[in-house]
């Protein structure tokens, strides 16, 4: 079993629990639950920072365009963007599909949750600043350019499901060797691994904290693999990350999402 931090729906505070990923159970306050018995809220409270082009395949997919305008060269530092508070959604929440968009890209991402204020950390100590890891769906409207922040495509309401928990750091043997899978309606649509990161988790923490402070509760997304699968209205999406867990959400028309409430 792995120690985890959860936040139950309707509760103000997070709680410590023990999760058995293999048996799909959770132990909380000396009582055991099937995970489906509990309604989770998003278990984080800080800023969420995304990272562009940190998978080798994602950079390769740009091809020769990476050396043309407006890029002119491969990135020499992490390309970051923000998933603001309005995007945050919980496990089980519905993802709104705008009326004029046929399908959304499901961005499977490992979320690195910061435990201690981190500024200019060294690589050998980088993981000491990590509280744990979580599963994130970095949802976006499909778009080609990564030159400017795609706010209208990535920062819409409900476009960042996260959770259901934060698994403690030491429960993950190697964050740079985790299988990542995306299922849509039960069908495996994407398979990758964090071994394909350009900047490892530790290197990313070093490079980011060289120019900005990450605070306790902040979440740094290590990146989204190339060819993010698409999902439309009614599709059920499940993202799995080895040793961390799984995240499940359903895509619904935005007009229904607004009418019935963002839950």
From TrEMBL:
**Keyword field:** Isomerase, Metal-binding
**GO terms of molecular function:** 5-carboxymethyl-2-hydroxymuconate delta-isomerase activity; 5-oxopent-3-ene-1,2,5-tricarboxylate decarboxylase activity; metal ion binding
Q: Which family does it belong to?
A: Belongs to the FAH family.
Which BP terms in the Gene Ontology apply to this protein?
small molecule metabolic process
What the entry lists under SUPFAM superfamilies is as follows:
FAH
One Pfam family from the UniProt entry? FAA_hydrolase
Q: What is this protein called?
A: Homoprotocatechuate catabolism bifunctional isomerase/decarboxylase
Asked whether the UniProt record includes Isomerase among its keywords, one would answer yes
């Amino acid at each position: 079993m792995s120690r985890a931090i959860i936040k139950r729906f309707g509760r103000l505070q997070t709680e410590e629990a023990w999760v058995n990923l293999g048996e799909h159970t959770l132990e909380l306050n000396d009582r055991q639950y099937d995970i489906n018995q509990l309604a989770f809220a998003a278990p984080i409270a800080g800023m969420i920072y995304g990272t562009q082009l940190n998978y080798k395949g994602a950079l390769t997919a740009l091809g020769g365009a990476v050396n043309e305008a407006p890029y002119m060269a491969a990135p020499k530092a992490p390309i970051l963007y923000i998933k603001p508070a309005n995007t945050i959604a919980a496990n089980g929440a519905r993802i709104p599909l705008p009326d004029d968009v046929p399908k959304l890209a499901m961005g499977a991402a490992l979320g690195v949750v910061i435990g201690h204020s981190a500024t200019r950390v060294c690589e050998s100590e980088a993981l000491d600043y990590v509280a744990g890891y979580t599963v994130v769906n970095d949802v976006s409207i499909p778009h080609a350019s990564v030159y400017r922040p795609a706010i209208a495509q990535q920062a819409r309401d409900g476009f960042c499901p996260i959770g259901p928990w934060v698994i403690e750091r030491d429960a993950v043997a190697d964050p740079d060797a985790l299988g990542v899978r995306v299922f849509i309606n039960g069908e495996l649509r994407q398979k990758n691994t964090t071994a394909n990161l350009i900047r490892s988790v530790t290197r990313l923490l070093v490079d980011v904290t060289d120019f900005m402070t990450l605070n306790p509760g902040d979440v740094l997304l290590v990146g989204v693999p190339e060819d993010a699968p698409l999902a439309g209205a009614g599709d059920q999406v499940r993202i799995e990350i080895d040793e961390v867990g799984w995240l499940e959400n359903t895509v619904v028309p935005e007009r229904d999402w607004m009418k019935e409430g963002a839950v």
